[in-house]
Amino acid sequence: MPTLVHRFVLTGAASEVPPARREIVDKVRAWGVPLDEATADAIRLVASELLTNAVVHGTGPITVVLSGRPGRLVIDVLDGHPAVPRSRCAQADDENGRGLALVRLLATRCAWESVGPGKRVWAEMALPMAVEVGPAEAGPRDLPAIRAKGRVGPKPASPRSAVA
């Protein structure tokens, strides 16, 4: 299966984050990925953190690129500000400062790299595998057998530095 790609651009306004988050989950579902609510919520959270950081700490326009292959999704967020993404040590009553820690927790891999005058921050997430039902694979009592598709494909381009 080839890599599925979806790209869109935001101006950098905070009001664009919720619809962009929905667009990401909707696109993954449109690709035929059987998302359960826990996986959809994880994608929404990672996307929200990456997008919000680009809006708050970066400069627009912000380019979002989704790359999907069986079993994985890469969310790339590119903005025009070269500042290095940094984790903060949030205190219990702080309302901010946990975003990159959440991304690291939910993503299988994440990193950043300088790109032109700005940066690219990305996160790779595991996805449920699509299933194929084949009539030639019918099991007992003519119930269709289900087999998962295997994972294939290259890894994302090697970043220069892991997200701190």
Automatic annotation (TrEMBL):
The lineage of its organism: Bacteria, Bacillati, Actinomycetota, Actinomycetes, Kitasatosporales. CDD domains: HATPase_RsbW-like (cd16936). It comes from the Bacteria. SUPFAM superfamilies: ATPase domain of HSP90 chaperone/DNA topoisomerase II/histidine kinase (SSF55874). Keywords: ATP-binding, Kinase, Nucleotide-binding, Serine/threonine-protein kinase, Transferase. This is ATP-binding protein. Residues 135-164 are annotated as: Disordered. Residues 17-123 form the Histidine kinase/HSP90-like ATPase domain. InterPro entries: Anti-sigma-factor_SerPK, HATPase_C_sf, HATPase_dom. It comes from Streptomyces violaceolatus.
